[in-house]
Amino acid sequence: MNIAVVLRQVPDLIETLEIAGDGTCLDYGAARFIVNEWDNHALEQALLLKESRGGSVTVVALDFGEVDNTLYEASAKGADNIVKIPWDADQPPALRQAVALYAEVLRSIAAELILVGCQAHDELEGPLAPQLAFALKLPYVGVVRGVQPSDEPGSIRVFKEFPGAVVARMAVRLPALIGILAAEKAPRYVPVSRIRAAMKSTQIQEQEVSPPPTESLATVSRLYVPEAPQRAEMLEGSVEEVAERLYQILAEKGLVR
Amino acid sequence: MIQAGTKAAEEGRTLTLLEEVLASPDGESVLGCMQCGVCSGSCPYGEVMKYPPRQIIQEAIAGRDADLISSPSVWMCVGCYTCAKRCPRGIDLTDVVWPALRDQALQRGIQPPTELRVAFQNLYLYGNLLGVSPRKRLDWAKDLDVTVRDLSRQPEPVEILWLVGCYPSYYPRNQVVSRAMARLLTAMGVRWGVLGKDEKSLGDCDRLFGEEGLFELLVENNHKLFRQYQFDKLVLTDPHGFRALQKFYPRYGVDIPAQHYTMYLAEKVDQLRPLLVRPIEATVTYHDNCCVGRRCECYEPPRELLRLIPGLKLVEMPRNREIALCCGGGGGGMWLDGHIVEHGGRRLSDERVLEAASTGAKILAVSCPFELSRFEDSIKVTGLEGKLVVRDIIELLAESMGLEERKKA
Question: Rounded to the nearest 10 degrees, what angle do helices B212-227 and A192-201 cross at?
């Protein structure tokens, strides 16, 4: 099975995110980037499928953030082909732009199965995966936490998670695009020596694409840090004083007499 | 000089465990193994390992490494160096056999236990074990009442370049010790500086865990960094980092004078003595950490520092100096408690605090950042709360100098 995986860069939340001077977007220059967690699961799922039934894994990524490190790591883990899409802007594409860019490359790859993380923490206009499936005219199943090969030719089995810990097992006819919540196993650790070897040997194919649409679906008027509602009261003083105040509060709310 | 298996991986080759061991510095010594079993008998986890150290060498020499490589035993060594210290043939099991075994496991796609995997990933991405932003490296010094020379912001020559370490920089309990160290050095009149956001882990735990590629990356980064600054010597809070600088960095051409803080301060006793004015009337026992103690045979400097403190009575645990029991946190053990307990072991730190309490001591003195949290956790689970407290030697010295924790006015 030939599988394509989209790997996106997202701001790493170990750093405090800063808002740019115009107050409408993040200061991407001050951000650190990391592979989107759910896309990383999509890669792991693709590698597990390849190890189970053979085939190849092609990774597609936009040239943004720390993408080269992510791509070398993907190669060290076992990805066979790496495709990088040029992107010169200092912020990531809006949803419509991303859909156009990835769709053009994915059409040219013609993979039987496309795996994309079902979410990313910087998605402003909704998740990429279903929009991409729509653009590619492919069936889509999202919030999937496991993909397995099927004995029926030309199809796969997916495990879709619903609220309330309900899981549905579905047969999906290929080609299809699946939004991955989690792979069947945690994304693998690959030793740094393998990544360094990949840096020397990996051929990254840069694929030029048509300019994407410029207009966005949404316009940000103000981006700001959530404002604290000031509802918390810190109880201070001795144990007895705190206990007394606590009792008063509970009594005021009618919870104790 | 990098791990042979790592080098082979970078060249797209795979070695057997024996080939990798033999290609390591001092690796040929394993061929002298007479299977006496002293290593397995000495290992604190030997009795619960499917493959204790003696058998690992046997399997490697016999070329039967497939089952061994995938067994939980691979991840049960905590780098205490007891096996290596006691081997009558002088085989350096801790620094040669275990790293080779783990490198083989990693190269063949065996996944390390989850917590350790996360620690590796954190080091690779951020240069610290805790996965915290490098920009927060100096958070421990916020509102500190002494001047901290952050050389990453303003390079200037210093007498000592203090490598604070990951836990002392980020972990709240250890940050208290870092602040005490800053006040202590300042009170002694030492011209000291730190690397701030540029400081990275030295990588000893990763080397012991076979992640030699990661260790090599950290060595390269640190080498570039150290060359940018003027200092007489490096002083470290972390004994594992000290050990790495002393023994392994020179293999990569990085040979810089370095001391663990106990060694550095013990050379300054004449300067310290008049500053230690407040008595600490307490019975104290000292836990030898494995790197400064067993590995470097540096047993007296920490004790010398404790004896300087007026009023303090030092008593010894039954297992002290060369036979001291490890806290279980070395060589990546900090991230393996779950794995080790699951596979039949117990936390060595639990055993060690009971031993410390049996001496009648009220304070367990330590000199390794891992030991504070390990022993404090163990005190809670062994019912010793209120009976025994853990203090770093730095904290005790600072208290005797009247340099308690306080904020800038």
Answer: 80
Q: What is the pLDDT of residues A141-197, one digit of tens each?
A: 999 999 999 999 999 999 999 999 899 999 999 999 999 999 999 999 999 999 999
Query: A-chain residues within 8 Å CB-CB of B5?
Result: 193
Q: Which among B10, B114, B121 has the least Cβ separation from residue A193?
A: B10
Residues 203-242 of B with CB under 8 A from A: 211-214, 216-217
Nearest to B130 by CA among B140, B114, B115, B143: B115
Domain-by-domain residue ranges, chain A? 2-206
CB contact under 8 A, B217 and A192: yes
What's the CATH class of domain B4-107? Answer: mainly alpha
Question: Which residues of chain B does CATH 1.10.1060.10 include?
Answer: 4-107
- Average pLDDT of each block of 10 consecutive residues along chain B (409 residues)? 64 84 91 97 96 97 94 95 96 94 93 94 95 96 95 96 97 97 97 97 84 94 97 97 94 96 97 97 98 95 98 98 96 92 93 98 98 97 97 98 74
Residues B388, B373: Cα–Cα separation, whole Å? 14
Distance from CA of B92 to the nearest CA of A (A): 24
Alpha helices in A78-223 (DSSP H): 95-109, 128-136, 192-201
- If we measure between CA atoms, which residue out of B84, B230, B217, B72 comes closest to residue B155? B230
Q: How far out from the chain centre does Cα A167 lie?
A: 21
Lookup result for tokens 């791509």: A71
Name the architecture of domain A2-206: 3-Layer(aba) Sandwich (3.40)
Strand A204-206 versus strand A81-85 pairing type = parallel
pTM equals 0.91
Distance from CA of B377 to the nearest CA of A (A): 25
Does A13 touch chain B if contact means CB atoms closer than 8 Å? no
Q: What fold characterizes domain B276-400?
A: Rossmann fold (3.40.50)
Quote the ipTM score: 0.90
